[in-house]
Amino acid sequence: MPHRSTIAVPLLALAALVAVWGRELPAPVEIVVVALLAGSVLAAVHHAEVVAHRVGEPFGSLILAVAVTIIEVALIITLMLSGGPGTASLARDTVFAAVMITCNGIAGLSLLVTALRRRVAVFNPEGTGAALATVITLAALSLVLPTFTTGAAGPELTGPQLVFAAVASLVLYALFVVVQNVRHRDYFLPVARTGRHAPDNEPTADDLEASADEHADAPTPRAALSSLLLLVAALVAVVGLAKVESGTIESVVTGAGLPQAVVGVAIALLILLPETLAAVRNARRDRVQISLNLALGSAMASIGLTIPAIAIASIWLEGPLLLGLGPTQIVLLALTAGVGVLTVMPGRATVLQATVHLSICAAFLFLAAYP
């Protein structure tokens, strides 16, 4: 049975969201909102793991990624419908931030945690390589090509081009889900590590916890359904409260003289917190494959679901829809692709590869603030 707090916090957060939505908040209320936001993140991780345990891997690792992305899409469309000069590039900035944070930040942190404890992080190159190739292709079609096409002025796509990008994104994502969960499911399962413990080493607390989880009975259908509903509630609370706090974040960013894109990056960091915590927790248990499934699956879902949704929403949206990346962003994406391929190919990574990915993520965050 889940701890009572994992049930109470999402419900309290939803109630708080309804109470504070659209209102100016004093400082004490802001602190309460931030506390509920953090609690909802932890609750989301717990309930995602319950559902994942019920449905099994690798399908379980998709639950959190898809749930977060669906709500992220709703948040993007809501902000774009509200208008304003800064919303024309909101979809591009949010999707690109998600790709950089997941492929370098979450993946790098997961590899680092495992490599520090096991010296080498071991994963399946077939499944991880297929996921990375899909992410790179989706990013190139949706975010790079609009910079170079000539059908529309600026980094935009014409109507037919946008339809093609949306259909291609949806088809590739749907096909990947089928491959991951049906045809080649074994490519995305954790790799068994031979000689996991040296003869003179005692199992750690994380090892014992992982062993207990692996042999624990799966939750009942009723418990899994309850956790699924609470997961959705927690994610709605996370995104909703992040939207509530976005005004404060925007004021701080504007006051500091930083670019408008920093607001999108900050909100993306908040939204991706549940996946980050879940990925790190799996990495500590020597299940880095699940961590990589979460990271790359989140990047893929962010593009594969956001672009089709934005294409449909563009019928009602006013103003331009800027999707093409700038030169600095394209360089960072190309660097991510090249380093990612070199990391994935051997199926093994050390602290060096992990630190390289984290350095790219740090460069993205720094250049977003100081372009």
TrEMBL record:
Keywords: Membrane, Transmembrane, Transmembrane helix. The keyword Membrane applies. It comes from the Bacteria. One of its GO terms (molecular function) is sodium:proton antiporter activity. GO terms for cellular component: plasma membrane. It holds the Pfam family Na_Ca_ex. Its main location: membrane. Residues 31-180, 227-368 form the Sodium/calcium exchanger membrane region domain. It is found in: Membrane. It is a multi-pass membrane protein. The chain crosses the membrane at residues 32-52, 59-83, 95-116, 128-149, 161-179, 223-242, 262-280, 292-316, 322-344, 351-370. Signal peptide: none annotated. PANTHER family: SODIUM-POTASSIUM/PROTON ANTIPORTER CHAA (PTHR37958), SODIUM-POTASSIUM_PROTON ANTIPORTER CHAA (PTHR37958:SF1). This is Ionic transporter y4hA. It comes from Acrocarpospora phusangensis.
